[in-house]
Specification:
The chain has about 180 residues and is an alpha+beta fold. The protein has a domain at about 5-125: Gcn5-related N-acetyltransferase (GNAT) (Aminopeptidase). The chain is built from six helices and eight strands, in the order E-E-H-H-H-E-E-E-H-E-H-E-E-H. It has helices spanning about 20-30, 30-40, 45-55, 105-120, 135-145, 170-175, and strands at about 5-10, 10-15, 60-65, 75-85, 90-95, 125-130, 145-160, 160-170. The protein has an eight-stranded mixed sheet with strand order 1-2-3-4-5-6-8-7, sandwiched between helices. Helix 1 (about 20-30) crosses helix 3 (about 45-55) and helix 4 packs across helix 5 (about 135-145). The longest helix is centred in the middle third of the chain and has 15 residues, at about 105-120. The N and C termini lie far apart (about 35 Å).
Length: about 180
Amino acid sequence: MKYFKKLVGKNVYLSPMNVEDAEIYTKWLNDFDVTDGVGNSTMILSVEYERDWIIKNSNQYQFAIVRLDNDKLIGNCSIHAINQIRQCAEVGLFIGDEENRNKGYGEEVLNLLLYYGFNYLNLNNIMLRVFSFNERAINCYKKVGFKEMGRRRQSYYLRGNYYDEVYMDILREEYNK
């Protein structure tokens, strides 16, 4: 088996990333439908680069998102920018193929990351960043309990337009309610 069920939800589980998936990640990370939302559409990534990145970051909190019913890789997520002294971190995720979006997987992934971050990493504040045009993601984050805490106005240029970078966070006590 190439995936390991580290964090298991109802429909998906989070597994350590597998270097054998570098080609799939490279496909997604060169797809504007994915990269416009995560803010790295200007990057051009090769399979070799992605393979090296997975190897170098394998001891970080980077996870493959895998469907529980068929063990199919559908995306990636992470807890990063961890500051143990201040007990805060950031999370991020993407779902690769459109066929797996709008099915509640993102919400489930966030709940798994929050559970892990608050209960195992002893975090108190977890934040994320999202661009103002990405209403689908913003609605998902609000559903999980994230609240907007600020904006960096017109800081993201994409296809002729400027968008705000929206900062959202959730506290352990809010998550536990």
